[in-house]
Write a structure and sequence with these properties.
- By secondary structure, this protein is an alpha/beta fold.
- Helix content is 28%, strand content 28%.
- The chain contains six helices and ten strands; from the N terminus they run E-E-E-H-E-H-E-H-E-E-E-H-E-H-E-H.
- A hairpin with a 3-residue loop joins strand 2 and strand 3.
- Helix 1 packs across helix 2.
- The chain is globular, with a radius of gyration of 18 Å.
- The C terminus is likely disordered.
Amino acid sequence: MLILAIDTALDACAAAVLDTAGGVIARESQPMKRGHAEALMPLIARVMKASGVAFTALDRIAATTGPGSFTGLRVGLSAARGIALAAGKPVVGVTTLTAFAAPIVSETSEHPVISAVDARHDHVYFQMLGGDGSSLIKPQVAPIAEALDAARLGAPYLVGNAAKILADRWPADAAPPFKTDQQAAPDIAWVAWLGAAVDPESSPARPYYLRAPDAKPPKDPLSGASQPPAAS
């Protein structure tokens, strides 16, 4: 299976082409807090050229769906949908929390894994998995103090762009984290592998919200009144 994976949900702009029979054959990732919209399509073009794979030869396109930047994840999802439509291929979504945790769970860790994304305002998006991949705490957004209650379930492997936030505030009376792996964005190769593994019917390429977005629509210049917030 040939997969084009795209990630713009957090602080990177990344793409990769995966051949499930032989591994990743081309990839590029650029650290980036803003400017994904301008950088993504040229980056995808370079990756596709380096892979030697035509868009029509792809079997599916995968993109990260969040949690993450309201604007950034839409850039990636819009590109993935557009490419999928033009090439006549299915498109799937992969959550950032799952992508952060996947390489650790794949090693059959003896420790639980907490993947965490900074939600700002003293909150985090997080989930907790057993070392075998079983769900211990489902994906949610919570105050950091509440997320730290997970300490009662054992010394975890912390990963994600909020891993250090949790580590720095870890309860003194709990077993310390087994390891802290601060990452600005998930490994694009694992986004691709997950994109190959998921069921398109249960993994739609649409924003994955654990809370309402902070962004609000602009005022209508004709009426001078605020528009009602869009449903999500």
